[in-house]
Structures are given as C-alpha cells and as structure tokens.
C-alpha cells in the first residue's frame, strides 16, 4: 500500500514539512528533519496563499448572497408577487387556500427522499466535459433547502391572507359575505396559524443549531398536525362553501386544487414511513471517541446517507454510508457501514453502549458528496470525524480522482486500521495531519498547495460548520470552486 504523507513534529503553519511513513509501521511518520522527506515546494505556504487576493465584493457574493439565500429569495418574492395579484381579485378565499396548499406541497416535496434523490441524479448527471461554470452551479445542488424554506415561509404569507379574508367573511353581514361560515372553520384556521408560526420560528438557524432535538420533534409533529388539521379545515370549509354555492360537497372538493395538493402532501409524508424497519447492526468499537456500525439489510453507493434512530418517534440522525468492500468487487456479503463519532448525547451513548438494532426509515438518500461526481479531480478536506462522510466516495468506481487532506488527533489510534486502509483506497497518497504531533495547522495554505500539485478542479470540505464555512469562503473568495455542507443540506 502506498504510504501516506503525514505532517508532524514542530513545523509551524508557515513552514510545514511533509513526511512519509515507515513501510513497517504503516501509519507512523518518520522523524521531522530528515532531508530525504523534505519537499521544497512545501515551504512558506502562507506566503504563497497571500499571493491569491480575494475577489472584489467577495464577502457579498460568497458570504451573504449564497445560492441557498438566492433560492429562498426567488421563491419567496415570486410568491409575494402572485399574492399581491390575487388580493386584487374577487375570488380571494379559494385562491388563497389553493396557494397555501400548493406551497405546503412544494415545501414537503423538497424534503421527500425520492424527490431529493431525483434532484441529485438529474442535476448531477451533467458530464465532466461540460463547461466549468455549469458544473460549479450543478455541484451546489445541495442548496435545494432554499426552496424548502422559501415555500415554507411563503405558505405562511398565503395562509395569513386566507385567515384574514376568512375572518372578514365570518364577521361580515350576510348580504356581503360570499360564503357563510360557522365558528368551526375559523377556529381551526387560527389553531393552524399558531402551529405554522411555531414551526417556522423553531426552524430558524439559531434555534435549530442550539436545540436541534427540540427543533426536529417540533418540526415533525407540528408538521403532521398542521396537515391533519388542514385536511379537517378543508372538509369543514368545503361543506359550508358547497352549501353557500349550492353544489354537492364531492364536486366542490374534486374541483378544488387544494384538495389534490393536500392529498399528494399526505402521500409524500407517509411514503418514507412505509419503509420504517428495525434493522440489525453490528458495532465495531474503534476507540472511546468513535465506532463503526455495519449493516447488511441493503447496499449503498456513492454519496448516500442513512437516517437512524433508537426510537422511531424521537430524534433521527443522518450518517453518510460507505461500502464494506471496494466498489466493483463481490467479496463478502453485501453490506455497508457508517462512522459514528462522539458529538452529543446520542452518539456518545451509541459509542458507550453499542446497539444491536436500530430503526431506519425511507431509502438511502443522496447527500452532499454525491454532487462532487461532476468533477474529475477533487481535493477532499476534512477534520476529525468528518472522514466518515468522506468515505462515501468509495461507493463508485467512477468517482473523481481524489487527494485527501485530513487533520485529526491520533488517526490510527482513534479510528483504527480499517478506516486508515479505506482512506488509502480513496487516495493512495493522502496528507494526514496528526494534531497530537503538529498541533492545529492553518489548512488554507496547505489546501492551496495541494490544489496546485494535484491539478484539482474543486475542493470538497467536510468539517464542523464554522471551519467548513471559513475554508469554503476563503477559497471561493480567491476564485477556487469550493463546496461544503450547509446547515440545511
């Protein structure tokens, strides 16, 4: 197996020495200072990085006007424009309820596993021979969450209009009201409004980051309750509206688009739960910080993730998956793994008390890494347990050529020889920085060096949210295609 490049010793971030490991001790670096291990181009990396000046207005373009926010703004403003037009018409009530239901459907479909997989497959089917600007745009497909949140907030705008017009109809004199309504639909409407506001408030990134478990439970159960109450509201409204318009309730519902939008919404919610299963899992302890979970209920492929839970109605956690055997081989049973590192109560309990069974729902979902297939040569940058999602690159023989840059503490001791061997399968000559030896190194200069040496088209960054955002911004500001998961990817 080709040796890994290790960074160790007392080299500073401005003068990093790369060393190669001993053939016998496969994942140990040689002593720093050996003339045969020093590479001239590795010197003064910070000075080299400083030569690439940030673009003009880089902070506005890459930190504020992200694709996620642009998608959100486009969807929201388009809805606002139509909302203003609708409020100028006479058929406000029916138009408002139809638009609300349409946005709720779009909001749900943007998170539906089958739809997400289809989006990734279609967008990332772009050939690697396509122009770079098109491939850069396609690789940001994981920003699709902007459509989800845009439609979610837009549905609140439409629903506020619906509640306002309904309330006016309820309190209007009989001669002025187009549809006579009782207190039942109005009461249901205000209950739904409270829930809709609550679900949007807890989805704010600040709340979501600090109290993720509460966000998930509130988002899921309030979403289900909103759909159920909306269905009840639709039935009651249809009953009273059909009487006012002198037509059968069945005919009224069939001709009402909101009814069909809501029916499709229910189907999109139910479908993943039809695949709810309790599956066997074999835990392979790696250290007190990490464990590897093996599954045999299905197979995985490039860039796919799995949703796992210890109780089906509590918090769910997503993990990137990777095959247990090299892509294109048939050695051993069809199985796959995911890497769990200590990052909270759920992961800590999984490491300390390895499970024998876990719940999974839906199908394996294409994730952020899948978008990297549009490039030919990629530098993969990761820290610590971020190597787990990176291993999902192993699920495809046609994956891009990879250069792995991994900064972590005691990689062999923490993650074991099996993970190290898979890292070498991704890249026969990875750059592994052991922070126990060299401390934390500023990764941007090292990344820029690897981009030049490897002739990379793009950089894939998988780390904690703060570091991922900083590295992606610093690279994009210098005109380098860089990609990293966002909070809503």
TrEMBL record:
Superkingdom: Eukaryota
Transmembrane segments: 71-89, 101-123, 144-167, 187-207, 219-238, 258-276
Keyword Membrane applies: yes
Keyword annotations: Membrane, Transmembrane, Transmembrane helix
GO biological process: conidium formation; regulation of conidium formation; sexual sporulation resulting in formation of a cellular spore
Keyword Transmembrane attached: yes
Region (Disordered): 1-22
GO cellular component: plasma membrane
Protein name as annotated: Integral membrane protein TmpA
Natural source organism: Penicillium antarcticum
